[in-house]
């Protein structure tokens, strides 16, 4: 059904704003009602988890077992805010593991997790992730770096300035030099729940210079748009996995389902030995989200072949 509105700018716009605000408040209160009646939301509060999303990752791991307390695993959580998946990863990798969250929005990471406020679509983000997991520049151990809200990048520019000229730095970033200092694939598990942001509770965009909150992909309710935007973020997560994930490493990625699922799945099959599609019980029936799980990354991957055919 189309709403036929004849807008004369200036004259009628404020008249239109009122009903629109009413519609928004109505959908907000429906969302609040649904939240307060929801088992997983209540349970998340009881268990001190940052959101109900935690239960989705628990269910996915209960089925596919990609976290392992016995190995020292390094986990990269893409779009980690507010941090429920990072909490689950932290618990499931055990004390020796490392968890790094990346989010375009600023967010205090959960206990035992470090974070970078960065856009996954930027090449610099990979550099930061690589340095974080590097055994030779253990920046995460330096208190100076996380004294402000745990943000790893505080002071990072100074550190980068000091180390960019060193031989070790060159070895870490020069993939043609395979030495025992080079950790070409520093990550064991990549998890990506990238999509809509958590509700803004204070004016934190004062911290941002690039108006990330406006530029990000927010779920619009228009299925086609949400689907294509989530495919873009899924592809960004897949590129990150191709570049940083160890052979035999594992990958979890949320997607809003639609026409291109099959193509995304085909790309995943070129990177992982086993690919599964999964809808956890804790994901609402009416939600279009599904989760792809890629197990055991292949050793040789041709990125062009993954994305071109
Ligand atoms: C649904 S939330 C993630 C919830 C999280 N898994 C949890 O359990 O708390 C999606 C997140 O993706 C982030 N995001 C979206 N686009 C991004 C991008 N290009 N780079 C980094 N983070 C992004 C958003 O800021 C948002 O916080």
From TrEMBL:
List the active-site residues: 254
Q: What protein family does this chain belong to?
A: Belongs to the class I-like SAM-binding methyltransferase superfamily. RNA methyltransferase RlmE family.
User: Taxonomic classification, please?
Assistant: Eukaryota, Fungi, Dikarya, Ascomycota, Saccharomycotina
Question: What's the protein called, per UniProt?
Answer: rRNA methyltransferase 2, mitochondrial
GO MF annotation, one: rRNA (uridine-2'-O-)-methyltransferase activity
The answer to whether keyword rRNA processing applies is yes
Q: Name one Pfam family in it.
A: FtsJ
Q: Which InterPro entries match?
A: RNA_methyltr_RlmE (IPR050082), RNA_MeTrfase_FtsJ_dom (IPR002877), rRNA-MeTfrase_E (IPR015507), SAM-dependent_MTases_sf (IPR029063)
- HAMAP family, per this entry? RNA_methyltr_E
Q: Where is the Ribosomal RNA methyltransferase FtsJ domain?
A: 50-297
Keyword annotations from UniProtKB, A to Z = Methyltransferase, rRNA processing, S-adenosyl-L-methionine, Transferase
This protein's GO cellular component annotations are:
mitochondrion
């Amino acid at each position: 059904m189309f709403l036929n509105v004849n807008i004369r700018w200036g004259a009628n716009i404020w008249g239109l704003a009122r009903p629109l605000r009413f519609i928004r408040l109505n959908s907000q209160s429906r969302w609040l009602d649904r939240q307060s009646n929801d088992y997983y939301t209540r349970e998340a509060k009881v268990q001190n988890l940052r959101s109900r999303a935690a239960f989705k990752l628990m269910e996915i791991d209960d089925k596919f077992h990609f976290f392992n307390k016995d190995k020292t695993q390094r986990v990269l959580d893409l779009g980690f805010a507010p941090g429920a998946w990072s909490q689950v990863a932290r618990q499931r990798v055990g004390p020796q593991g490392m968890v790094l969250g990346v989010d375009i929005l600023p967010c205090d990471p959960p206990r035992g997790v470090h974070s970078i406020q960065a856009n996954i679509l930027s090449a610099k983000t990979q550099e930061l992730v690589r340095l974080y997991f590097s055994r030779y520049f253990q920046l995460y151990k330096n208190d100076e770096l996380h004294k402000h809200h745990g943000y790893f990048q505080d002071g990072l520019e100074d550190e980068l300035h000091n180390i960019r000229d060193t031989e070790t730095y060159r070895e870490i970033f020069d993939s043609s030099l395979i030495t025992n200092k080079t950790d070409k694939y520093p990550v064991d598990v990549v998890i990506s729940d990238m999509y809509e942001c958590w509700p803004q509770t204070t004016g934190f965009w004062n911290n941002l210079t690039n108006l990330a909150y406006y530029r990000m992909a927010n779920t619009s309710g228009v299925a086609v748009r949400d689907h294509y935007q989530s495919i873009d973020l899924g592809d960004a997560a897949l590129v990150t996995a191709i570049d940083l994930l160890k052979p035999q490493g594992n990958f979890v990625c949320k997607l809003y389902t639609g026409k291109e699922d099959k193509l995304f799945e085909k790309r995943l099959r070129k990177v992982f030995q086993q690919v599964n599609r999964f809808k956890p019980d804790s994901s609402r029936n009416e939600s279009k989200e599904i989760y792809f799980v890629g197990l055991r990354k292949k050793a040789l991957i041709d990125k062009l072949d993954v994305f071109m055919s």
